[in-house]
Amino acid sequence: MQDTDARGSSPAFLRPQNGSSHKSSGYVPGRIAPLRPPPPSQSHAAAEFTSARQEARTRLPSLPVDQHRRQAEASRHKNTLICFAVSSLSLFVALGIFLGIASKYAPDENCPDQNPRLKNWSPGKDPEKRVFIKKGDLFRLNSDATVHSIVIQDGGLLVFDDDKEGSKNITLRTRFILIKDGGMLHVGAEKCRYKSKATIILYGKSNEGADVPEFGKKFIGVGPEGTLELHGHQKLSWTLLSKTLYFSGLAYGHYTFKKNFSRGLNVRVIDQDTAEVLEVLKFDTHEFSEESLKLQNLLKNGSPGRIIAIAVGDSAAKNLLEETRVTIQNLLGSKFVRGLSYRQAWAFVGVIGGGNSSCNESVRNYENHSTGGKALAQKEFFTVDGQKFVVRAYSEWNDGVPISGFEVEAVGGVILNLLDDVSSWEPGDRIVVASTDYSMYQTEEFTLLPCPECTKHQVKVKENPQFPHIGEVIDGMDMRAEVGVLTRNILIKGETENTCYREKECQFFNYDTFGGHIKIFKNFTSVHLSYVELKQMGQQQIGSYPVHFHLCGDVDEKGGYSFKTYLEGLSIHHCFSRCVTVHGTNGLLIKDTIGYDTLGHCFFTEDGIEQRNTLFHNLGLVTKPGTLLPTDRNSSMCISIRDKVYGSYVPVPATDCMAVSTFWISHPNNHLINNAAAGSQDAGIWYLFHKVATGDSHSLAIETKSELTPLGIFYNNRVHSNFKVMYYLIKKI
C-alpha cells in the first residue's frame, strides 16, 4: 500500500510493509523507489500525472538516506508551521470580528444612561406626585413626565435616557429637584455628551405652596454630597462677524417707494451686483413725446446687465412713441409694451440686454376707475456676495386713485460671514448679534435657516436685520460684532405667567419675573454644567439666580476636588436676575458662557471675598437694571425702593445707583481673560473692592485686604455699547 500524509499526498519514501525486510521490485538502497501504480478508481489523467511524477523522481541523483530523512522532516516541520500560522490568523480574524460586533452593542461605560443597573422609569403626569429617589433606586427616565417634586438622596440616581440617533426627546416638568446626601442627577457626561433633547421645566407661582428651607421655590438644588452633571452637545459658543452685516441684509439697504398720481412711466435703475438703486426717474410719456425719446436714449446707453424696473402711474400710453416701445421690447424683452393703452396698469422688471427670459411683467385693464388689483412684476437676483434679493414694481388704479411703487429687498434669508468655524450650529438654532452702536438695544436675534451653499464660516438667517452690525477692524480698532448661539439640546426653563402678578415687581416690569433657579451649596460631591441652555431663570429676590454657587468655599483642587468645578458653554438668556452668581466661592471656572437679556449684574461676585475664579471667553450683552441692590437699579428704582438702603438715607441715583454691570468683580484676585461686555445699561466691567466682606459673609469678619492684593489676570477683554462706555472703576469701600 501507499502511505499518505495528513493532506493525502504521497510521501517521498516508501516504507517496508508490516515491518518486513522485503524490498519491492526495483528497490535499490539509497535510491528513490518507483511508486506503485495508482488505484483503479483514479482517472486516466490523474494516472498519467502520477506516472510522470514517478518517472521524474527516478531521474534524481542518488542521495544519502539520512539526508533524505532530514529533508522530509524539515518539510513536515515547515508544513506544520504554515498550518499553525494560518490557523492563528483565522482565529485572530474571527476574534476581531467578534469583538467588533460585541463592542457595537456593548454599553459605553462613559455614558451614564448605559449603566446596566438602571431601571427604566416612567412616572407619568401627576402634578401631585412627590417623588423620592433613594438608596437602591437607579432610574433611567425614558418618557415625558410631570410631577410635584423630586428629591434624590442616599445614593439614589436619576439619568435621562439617550441613544446614538439623538431621538429620545424627554421633557420633565416639576416644581423642584433637590439633590443631596449622595443623590445624583445625570444628563450626559463630559466623555459621552447628551445627543437627544432634554428639557427640565420648573413651574409654579411665587404665592403657591411653601418654600423649601434654604432653596425657596422653583429650583434645582444641590446640597452636601449631591452630584449634578449636565453635558449637552458641544458647539462653538460665540464668535465675531468677519464682514459687516448691513441693515436689511443689503449693502445699500432695502428700498421702498409708493406714490399716487405720478403720471407717466416711473423708472428705477438698479445695480445687479449690489442691489443699489442708481437712478430714480419719471418720464411723462402721456403728455410729452420728448419724454419718450429720453427714455429711449436711457435704455440704449445703459450698461448691459443693469436692472430696469418700470411702473405706470396714472397713464403713460398717449405719447409713448412706437420706436420707444420697440426699444423696450428689443432691449428688455417686454411682450406687453407694444399694446399698452390708456390708463392701463403695467409693471415690468427686466435686465438691459437680457431679453424676454430675464424679465417679468404684468398688465391690468382700467375699468370703472379701477384695475381690480395690482399689476405686479417681480424678479429675483443675486449680488456679487451671493445675497439673493428681489425687485418688485407695481401699478394699479384703486377707486379712481392711480398708485405705483417699487421694492428692493433681500429674500430667502441673509448670509452672515463669521470669523470661526460654526459648522456645529444647526438650522433652527437661535443666534444673537451684538450691537455695534452706542445703544445696546440694537442687539438682534435671528433664526438659522438651512444653507447648503454656505461655507463653514457662514450661516443664513431667516429675518432681515433691522440695524447694521460692523464686521471690520477700522483704523486699528476692532469693531466686529459678537455673534453667539443661544440654543442648546439641554434646556432648563422656568415656566412663567403671561402677565406680571407680583405687585412689588409690577411697578417696574410688565411681565412675570418669577423664573426657576439653580442653587449649589457647600460640600457638594460634583457639579459640572456644559452646553446647557437656561431660559426664564432667576427671580427678583436675593439668592435666586440662574446659577448660584452659595458659600461653597474652595471648589477646585484646594478644596479637595480632583476635577475642577466648571460652567462651560452655557447659554443664559431672557432671565430675571443675574446670569452667574459666585458667592463666597473660590476657584470656579466660567468659560464660553453667554449671558443675554438679563436683569441686574450679570457675571457677579457677591461679598468681596471670592478669589481665584476665572472668567474665560464669556459674552454678556443687554444687561438691564434690576431691583435687588442699589447698584442694580436705575434712577426710578433707586428712589422708590428702600431695600438695602441704610436707615433713612435717600439714595442719589447718579452716585448710589445706576451701576448695573455685565461683569461685577468685588475682589482683585480673580481672572478676566478674553471676555466681551457687549451692552449694558450702565457699565461693561466694574471692579469694586471691599475692605471687609459684605452680605452673608459680613458676620465672618473676614478682612479682604483688597488694597494689598495684586490684581489677577486682566487680558484681552472687549467692552462696548454701554451707556457709561467702559466703566472700568476701581473703588475701595
UniProtKB/TrEMBL annotation:
Its EC number is 3.2.1.35. It is found in: Cell membrane. Residues 119-243 form the G8 domain. The chain crosses the membrane at residues 79-102. CDD domains: PANDER_like_TMEM2 (cd13938). One of its GO terms (molecular function) is hyalurononglucosaminidase activity. InterPro entries: CEMIP/CEMIP2, CEMIP_beta-hel_dom, G8_domain, ILEI/PANDER_dom, Pectin_lyase_fold/virulence, TMEM2_PANDER-like. It catalyses: Random hydrolysis of (1->4)-linkages between N-acetyl-beta-D-glucosamine and D-glucuronate residues in hyaluronate. One of its GO terms (cellular component) is plasma membrane. Keywords: Cell membrane, Glycoprotein, Lectin, Membrane, Repeat, Transmembrane, Transmembrane helix. Residues 1-71 are annotated as: Disordered. It is an enzyme of class 3 (hydrolase). PANTHER family: CELL SURFACE HYALURONIDASE (PTHR15535:SF26), TRANSMEMBRANE PROTEIN 2-RELATED (PTHR15535). This is hyaluronoglucosaminidase. The lineage of its organism: Eukaryota, Metazoa, Chordata, Craniata, Vertebrata.
